[in-house]
Amino acid sequence: MIEIKNLCKVFGDKRAVDDVSFRVEEGEIMGFLGPNGAGKSTTLNILTGYLSATSGTCLVDGMDILEQPLEAKRNIGFLPEMPPLYTDMTVKEYLNFIYDLKGCTFPREQHLREICDVVKIGDVFGRLIGNLSKGYRQRVGIAQALIGNPRVLIFDEPTVGLDPKQIIDIRNLIRMLGKEHTIILSTHILPEVQAVCDRIVVINKGKLVANEKTEDLVTAVDGSRKMVAKIVGPQEDVLKALRTVAGIRTVEVLGKRDTDSISYLIESEERVDARKPLFYMLSTKGWPLVGLEGVELSLEDIFIRLVGESRRKSRKGGEG
Amino acid sequence: MFAIYKRELRSYFITPIGYIFCGVFLLVSGLLFYQCTLARQSMDSLNMYFLLLICVFAILIPLLTMKLLAEDRRSKTEQLLMTAPVSLTGMILGKYFAALTIYGCTFLVNAFNFVLLYRYGNPNTAAIFANILGVFLLGAAFVAIGLFLSSLTQNQLIAAVSSIGVIVAMLLLYLIGDAIPYAWLRSVLQWFSVLDRYIPFMNQSLSIPAVVYYLSLSAVFVFLTVRVYDKRRWS
Ligand SMILES: Nc1ncnc2c1ncn2[C@@H]1O[C@H](COP(=O)(O)OP(=O)(O)OP(=O)(O)O)[C@@H](O)[C@H]1O
Ligand SMILES: [Mg+2]
User: Fold this and answer.
1) Ligand 1 pocket: which of A4, A13, A14 to mutate (most atoms <8 Å of CB)?
2) Which ligand is nearest to the CA of A37?
3) How confident is the model over A266-291, as a mean pLDDT?
4) Do A2-221 and A226-294 show the same overall fold?
5) Domain ranges of chain A
6) Contact list, A49 vs chain B (CB under 8 Å)
7) CATH code linked to domain A2-221
8) Which pLDDT value is given to residue A160?
9) Of all helices (H) and strands (E), which one includes residue B155?
10) What are the backbone dihedrals phi and psi of residue A79, each rounded to the nearest 5 degrees, phi first?
11) Is the pLDDT reported for residue A77 higher than 60?
12) A32 CA → ligand 2 middle, Å
């Protein structure tokens, strides 16, 4: 459905996107992951025809965005990083404007009503966009992308600046939209893509780092687990005992985080579950374990691993 | 294109700028009209009136055009317009015609002043029509210039001030044109001297070259605006 080939974009002397290629199949929800300044927004802006690539091509449903821009753009609904809203219009006027702008042919009233129901903005329909809260503006931005029922939806960081409940709402919305649309979702939050995406493309500093099914990527980077254990007991003894547990690689004291227990950061060996031996050891010693939780990998960890892994692979490839 | 035109036109009347333009223009032109034609009745004063009107436009039209593209660029809504299934030319023409409509309608309302002349005397209809056409075409070129300068910045104030500067400079070329030292420079700059082309209209004649000149001046600046946008995508 979407095909990006050898895309490069140079701003002055800065390579914002450097030889990126990937495909998104029909009906897929693709997560587009990368830290700040990785080139996500630039790639999406090129894909939607806002910027032109320095080299490389973007095809949407087989049509080149540069050669057949109008046909290609008709297939795309785009929510840019900053929702492109006219603050001096009401939601109703704005959506009607978009409807005209995209030259839709659906029955107007019904189409707009359906979209308002889906993104839940019916109650602010008559309000001025300039007076809406951030969350509602984001929804109006999503509504705008949905008008005309395009087959491809592209969302650039749709959950930035929302409260946790709204983030969940928007994720559910995207998951629901994914049943009938092909979606690209850009973000720098790993759990977000883990929660909704079928496949994840990771870029860093303009270069493609990974392009894998969500499960594969998560196990690839999740092989060695970090967890925080809260244990009640004398610190030195607990520390010494922890280091002897099979499967635990390193232990670090985080200090007292609540009234009686002490927190330890434990890293286990790759692909080993150290939680059970840990529990048996503590119970024989009589030190209560009052909390145990996994530490979510930060994006930095993922990059270190992915980049490290691809180097290792290429080194092996070089020998073979 | 039509959607952009409609939205732009509406936006003139939800922000005060549309009312300010119409109000100030009708007020000033009414005063000028009274001074130039009703108080003194002669051919010269009619031409004087239209020349003064051009000067008023030199200042007011930039206020009308300053926000056309600068505002969209600042608020990132241009991203919406440029990723919608509308061509760049369509988007820019939509905006151009919106400003042109406001300007044209106000000017038309103002032209009703001349009905008064017919009540009190027997004015020269040919002169009036030639002048009205000339001023309208000249104003249309000013709109295109303002549009072009609005595409170069995201600050409306800069767009307005630079448009006024460019338009006034083009008007002044009429006065200082002969004083330009180099022949080649003189001939280049004289192409931009809009008042030189206005003289036939003052002599009540409809000069086709002048009409073509004004129309092409508008077309050139609209085209340049499209180029600015096209170029920016590549940079
Ligand atoms: N118009 C521009 N001119 C010059 N450099 C630019 C321009 N736009 C982006 N860049 C640079 O290109 C790089 C990639 O930017 P981009 O906005 O694509 O990152 P991003 O992945 O979207 O980051 P974020 O997570 O912060 O949104 C950055 O280093 C940025 O400074
Ligand atoms: Mg971004």
Assistant:
1) A14
2) 1
3) 85
4) no
5) 2-221, 226-294
6) 82-83
7) 3.40.50.300
8) 85
9) none
10) -110, 105
11) yes
12) 10
The CA distance from A304 to the nearest CA of chain B, in Å, is 32
Ligand 1 center to A234 CA (angstroms): 50
How far is the C-alpha of B62 from the C-alpha of B20, rounded, in Å? 13
The alpha-carbon gap from B231 to the nearest alpha carbon of chain A, in Å, equals: 9
Q: What pLDDT does A278 receive?
A: 87
Strand-pair partners of A8: A55
Pocket test for ligand 1, best of A7, A10, A41 (most atoms within 8 A of CB): A41
- Report which of A63, A75, A74, A49 is spatially closest to residue A3, judged by C-alpha positions: A63
Least confident of A126-130, A144-148, B48-52, B139-143: B48-52
Residues with CB under 6 A from ligand 1: A 11, 14, 16, 34, 36-42, 81, 188
Pairing of strands A63-64, A76-79: unpaired
CATH class, domain A226-294, is: alpha beta
Find the residue in A nearest to B13 (Cα).
Answer: A88
Three-state secondary structure call for residue B147 = helix
Q: Of A210, A118, A208, whose CA–CA distance to A169 is shortest?
A: A118
* Mutation site for A-interface testing, chosen from B72, B83, B87 by largest number of A Cβ within 10 Å: B83
Q: What is the DSSP letter of B198?
A: G
**What ipTM is given for this predicted complex?**
0.87
Q: What is the pTM of this model?
A: 0.84
**A44: nearest Cα among A28, A29, A58:** A58
Q: What pLDDT was estimated at residue A317?
A: 47
Q: Which residue has the higher pLDDT, A296 or A264?
A: A264
The pLDDT of residue B43 is 63
Cβ contacts of residue B116 below 8 Å, gap of 6+?
B38
Q: How close is the Cα of B222 to the center of ligand 1, in Å? A: 30
Q: Are A10 and A199 in contact (CB under 8 A)?
A: no
Residue in A210, A197, A198 with CA at minimum distance from that of residue A299: A210
Judge contact between B194 and B170, C-beta under 8 A: yes
Structure tokens that stand for B101 in this block: 């409509």
Q: What angle do CA B92, A157, B76 make, to 5 degrees?
A: 20
pLDDT band at A320 (very low <50, low <70, confident <90, very high): very low
Q: Quote the ligand 2 centre to A118 CA distance (angstroms).
A: 25
Above 90 in pLDDT, residue A147?
A: yes
Pairing of strands A55-60, A29-33: unpaired
Sort out which chain B residues have CB atoms less than 8 A from A78's CB and list them.
79, 83
The whole-angstrom separation of Cα A164 and Cα A153 is 23
